[in-house]
Design a protein that fits this description.
Number of helices: 11
CATH class of the largest domain: Alpha Beta
CATH architecture of the largest domain: 3-Layer(aba) Sandwich
Radius of gyration: 22 Å
Bound molecules: 6-O-phosphono-beta-D-fructofuranose
Structural class: alpha/beta
CATH topology of the largest domain: Rossmann fold
Order of helices and strands: EHEHEHEHEHEHEHEHEHEEHH
Shape: elongated
Number of strands: 11
Length: 325
Amino acid sequence: MKPRIGLLCSGGDSPGMNAAIRAIVRMSLYLGYEPIGIHRGYEGLIDGRMEVLTAGSVSGIIQRGGTILGSGRSVRFLSPEGRRQAYENLQKWDIQKLIVIGGDGTFKGADQFLQEYPTLRVLGLPGTIDNDLYGTDLTIGFDTAVNIAVEAVDRLRDTAAAMGRLFLVEVMGRDAGFIALHTAVAGGAEAVLIPETPTDFDAIVSVLERGWKRQKTSAIIIVAEGDEAGGALRAAEELQKRFPHYEIRATVLGHIQRGGSPTATDRILASKLGAVAVERLHEGASGAMVGIQSDLIVLTPFSKAVKAHSPLNPLLLRLIDILSL
Ligand code: F6P
């Protein structure tokens, strides 16, 4: 019987998860393993919802958003009893090696699981649109999410310019401003509100006034959902108080950013990380996230990957103000 590798997606889905699944399955087969897909993340592990995957199971999925395995946030896996059931199912299915694709919560769960069952071998892939993990320049899904948000901003800019309005656009990012910052630079926004920096409405007001002085016809402000201003709707109310006669509109992009076909960047990233994760597991690595830094594949212990995210690019932060002059 061939040795087995289990794989699951957990947490919020992200575009590129399917490309990662495909890479894991095909590299596993190449190295002589039998890949086992686990449905709906840790929940499926606890309930034993697993199936043998073949090369054909992952045909035609590289371009699809979401995940063919399903994903979810498991409350039961937070308890020792849930993890015990999960471990028993792995034993039943003869799986010693596991790859988990997800973010913060996924890796915290994997870390705890390994502490209790150290004979297992577990590696993680950064699968989240938020880009908020330490140890990787990019997470799978981030590039797609940013491109979706930028396309939306371009469309809103047309209306903003035609009607002479200020638009506040809320993007995802509960704890991190990566999507917001990158969308703001690529969308030519006048300002960005993110959780990592204090929100200063007086500074935003002066930027807007500067634009009006030189007869700008529109303005766009990108707001990360986790910013302390409380999202785009609240920030719009705050600005409307200061400019009662100005037409201000707020748009919340929400989960639209998480769906759809992954960009080539996300497909390539997912293919690299998925394939190398299998190779590293094969060599005996465990307890770490497989990420990419300056185009090199790097393993970062789960505990470190979730502790803090990599800093935002200070150059991008500085450019928002200068380039929207
Ligand atoms: O972690 C990814 C993410 O999309 C966050 O940006 C967002 O805050 C959260 O998931 C939304 O979670 P849910 O899909 O459970 O509403």
